[in-house]
Amino acid sequence: MALFAKNPNEVNYAGGEKHFVDVIKNRSDNDTLIFRNPEEDFNHGTTLVVQPGEQAVFVNEGNIEQVFDSGTYTLTTSNYPFISRLRNALSGGISSFHCVVYFIRIASSREITWGTDTPVKVMDKAYADQFTGVGIETEVGARGSYRVKVSDAGVLLTNLIGGNYDLSQQESLRDFFRNQFLSHIVALLTQELTNWNGPLISAPANVLTYAQAIQGQLAPIVREYGLDLLNFNISGMKIFDNEERRQAQELATKNREQYYGNMAAGAGEAARAQGQQQAYQTLGTNYQQAEMLRAMNATAANPGSEGGSLMGAGMGLTMGAGLGQMLPGLMGQTLQAAAGAQPASDSQTAGSAPAGKEDPVERLTKLKKLSDAGLISAEEFESKKAEILKEL
Question: Which domains, from first to last, does the chain contain?
Answer without folding.
Answer: 11-105 (no CATH), 112-240 (3.30.479.30)
